[in-house]
Amino acid sequence: MANSNTVDMDPDVARRLFEEGATLVLLDVPKGTELGIDCKVWKVGPLFKGVKMIPPGLHFLYYSSVNSPTCGSEIGPRTGLFLSVKPKDVILAKWDQKEEDLDFSASQDEEQVNRIRANLRELDPHLGPYPFEVLRKWVSLTDRISEEMANHLQPLSGRICAYSDVIPEVERRHTKDREDQPRNDTACQSMREGLDRLPRMKQREGTNLRFSDLPKKMYPPGATPAQITACSMDLSYALETVLENNHKMQPLNLLGELQFAFVCFIIGNVYEGFEHWKGLLALLCRSEDTMQKRRDLYLGLIAVLYHQLSEIPPDFFVDIVSQNNFLTSTMQDFFQFASGPGIDGALRKRAEKFKAHLTKKFSWDFDVDLDDCAPVVVELPEGVED
Questions:
Q1: Where does the chain cross the membrane (predicted)?
Q2: What is the mean pLDDT of the chain?
Q3: Is 283 helix (H, G, I), strand (E, B) or coil?
Q4: Has residue 313 got a pLDDT over 80?
């Protein structure tokens, strides 16, 4: 691998990790391919054949094919998958040039895997060490995600792709099938007409992330106007519905789903992951009644958010999260509910410390009235005139 910065390690520790850790053998991966595991990414060199000393547990492997220099060296969309490894595991995959993807079917060939296992010493110079300098970060971002949960949330295809794989809703292979379609040989008179001419697309079956469905209505069927208003101010009904339908036996698994969505977005580059993370976060932070009843869920939420927000540079929020002031307003509601009279004392204190941490890290003011429309005085950088 190129540009790899590994931590200094005692030779005896390294030897033990080599013998006890898992090995990911990746054959025929083209030079220049971007490949990463967990929170570290490299460009593959000409001698690369895999990753060694992988700690047992859940990991996220991801890669992006790269065009040849004659074609501009453009980097393709990122593809990833969660892998659960055990001590001394040997996982074998070969690069499929046509599909530009890793084929793990060779791992089912016990004879071939055993042959690789017997020759690990010879392969060692071509195996990059697992990046232990990011292990603590990775564990803090995924400690609530079990192997079972990852398998349940991953697409049935086994691949998490940055770009959705879409196909036409209706295949029109023959001319007669397209007779009722709008003609494309005349100029569009409006945006609506242009959109109507585009084929209706849908995501290819088996490629979608299998997140919990979030309610479109925040209130129960047959709700009165007063109930609708109450459920719109306190989203506990909608949150409890998600827990009942998806995590009834283990409500804290919702935090694992929150982590899974975050990793898909921040590492896998999947925007759908961000949208689901945002939706779950809104439900959790704006559910006062549930906050009073489910102390452990919210103590866990603070820990999850502490690590997630600590890994994002402050200017990230300027471009994405702060659109419509989403995160600031959501967390403001959370801290307001968390300071209420019916909240557990330990949770209230933890929330106060978390609020102080975010205020210091991002200079966010959670005490300002977001509904106040009064002008805000902004100091311009030196030398800039208004």
A1: none
A2: 85
A3: helix
A4: no
